[in-house]
């Protein structure tokens, strides 16, 4: 048996476009791979329900529930209450993916902001890990997270400390910046605030200069790896539908950039993912 265990910190087994047969096929591919854990990410009410069902069905599957900024136009008080209820289901380990997306603007910005704030408050009320989606809204995402207490001392007091690269005990805010696309400077600021940076497929792209700098500069203790499947397939699968087994290519690229062994990258990012989502 292989000793490598990969942790895909963010994927969509729940993707609405999958037929039940395709979802089963995907599950079999995951079970045949070195992937040990996948965290299925809700993006609206239906996908949050599907994520809960996936987690109930598959041993390796855990999930988070929430409303993606694209879909905040479908949010109502009733849906918000349903999401709160779903959080108490088995193997639900966070609120996400939530945030701001000013690239596509699929929901009005004020609606995005309003429900981003409400869902951070919900996560605080539930003492839950938070998974962030941020696109072309870097400064405002961080500002709102700060304003809503996502990095507060009180929030940090709910979670055990985490070890830094020199073995020092540091506060953990349990905020994951999914598919990080910002600068190394922003990543450093986030880590100082107790956040975790999640690295996805684009790190393997030729033009990944900025993301390579992030991986170089942020200690492995503060990184997770992910696919965001079925989106953003890494090289050499770029352009194809992504799936969790391809997180291997992200791990291999991180290992090259950090001059670490592939096995160490797998082991440490797996530990980081399990700690972040309170698994095991
Ligand atoms: Ni996603």
Describe this structure in words.
This protein has 280 residues and is α/β, with parallel strands linked by helices. The protein has a single domain (6-276), classed as Alpha-Beta Barrel (TIM Barrel), CATH 3.20.20. The chain has helices at 20-31, 45-57, 77-86, 109-126, 138-147, 153-156, 184-192, 209-217, 247-258, 262-276, and strands spanning 6-11, 35-41, 61-65, 92-101, 130-135, 162-163, 169-170, 175-177, 196-199, 223-225. The strands form 2 sheets. Strands 1-2-3-4-5-8-9-10 form an 8-stranded parallel β-sheet, with helices on both faces. Strands 6-7 form a two-stranded antiparallel ribbon. Strand 6 (162-163) and strand 7 (169-170) form a beta hairpin. The two termini are 21 Å apart. Nickel (II) ion binds next to loops. Residues 10, 12, 41, 97, 228 line the site of nickel (II) ion.
